[in-house]
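Quick one from the shared queue. A colleague (R.T.) flagged Carboxypeptidase regulatory-like domain-containing protein as missing a structural entry in our internal table.

Convert sequence to structure tokens.
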Amino acid sequence: MKRPTVILCCALLGLAPAACGPGLEPESDGTGTAIDPDNPTITVSGQAEVYPEAMRLLAAQGQGTPVLEGFTLTLEEPLGVGVNDEHAVLAQGVVDSGGGFSVPGVAVNGIHLSLAARLEHEGFVRSSTILFDTVFTRTRPTLDLVGTRVWALPDAFHDALTHAVGEKAIRTRSEGRAGTLKEAGFILGRVVDASGAPRAGARLVGENNGVTAHIYYPSADFQSADQKLTSETGLFVYVHSGTAPEVFELAVKGEKVYMKRNVGAAPGAALVVTFHPAE
């Protein structure tokens, strides 16, 4: 069975980071000013952008790319937010006119498993993009994070993903609680190779068969989805149960260069994650 979010207690109780599982997502180059050990905070900067497949979908529908200027961006420990940890929200900022952001004062000690940036705005799915994951470094960040990328998921793209997976499958995985991905809660993931290109033919597995049964692979045209392998987009969708937040592990089957990742899902929200080879 999936582990409930109570597994976060090891981190919240201050145990060594290595004992619980965070490294950089490919969206960040990990350079910047070293932190002050007496005031362990970092600045996180980068770009907020509409998810690439969402941009193509909107363009095909004759719509322009949404402007993200003025969106609130929240830096958080995403798995802590799932259990209503009052310390999980670490800092907030605003996306500027060019889509950029720079958020100072992000408390490093609040990062236990990962650091994510959340976008929440009318017309978009509430979504958190993982920027830093301790599974790669076994420690918290020691430098400012620059060049990060945070993905926005327009409702139209959510609707296309829901169509691809299918209401019947979503209701099956949520035991009738939800008919859309947003209602159920979901993870949108992509598997990429060492160059950052999407990987076709990859298969994700959970820590047990129950987790794996919730994973779907949308076709490149988002007209359908199966439970076999990623398409040329490298995308997969995990459909949550529509119940309480849960934390669990996902891995790329048969490929040890991809680290197992701690991820989570909760109703009404999406977690955006990229699986890339460890260096």
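The first strand starts at residue 3 and ends at 4.
Confidence is low (pLDDT under 50) at residues 1-29.
Added to the table.
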